[in-house]
Amino acid sequence: GSGGNTSDNGNTCPATSQNSDTCCSSNTCQKVSCSPRVLSSGTKATLTVNSFVRGGDGGGPSECDGRYHSENSLVVALSTGWYSGGSRCGRKIQINGNGLSTLATVVDECDSENGCDSEHAGQPPCANNIVDGSRAVWAALGVSENSDMYGFMDVTWQDA
Known about the structure:
Number of helices: 3
Shape: globular
Order of helices and strands: HEEHEEEHE
């Protein structure tokens, strides 16, 4: 694209750590607009789990299409810099982890600038290196919900 948010192309944005659940009450949440540089060979990220259903922990409907998505849909939210103002909406990314890979569609932003309010289901801002995947994404990578890895897993991703 021309112009727009190019924060995911910068070299100077290190990954941030996950905000603790108490950062909202103590007002110590890290808020970042950039994400680490996207590499065509695969970008390091942390895969987290999100529910995109109505009433799920994702809060409101997905940013890209204004809709909710079933637990069986291969969908993800990306941290603010990688979401890049919606430029990846509806596009597929390849996620590699646990020795497997899967394709998932970008439908939402994991907001790393804002949080702690009702729009974000009371959740703190996202870290800036998050691929927030549905249960189906985790299943496609062979990680069951009772696995020790479930919830936070090191992965790489790239545009598909």
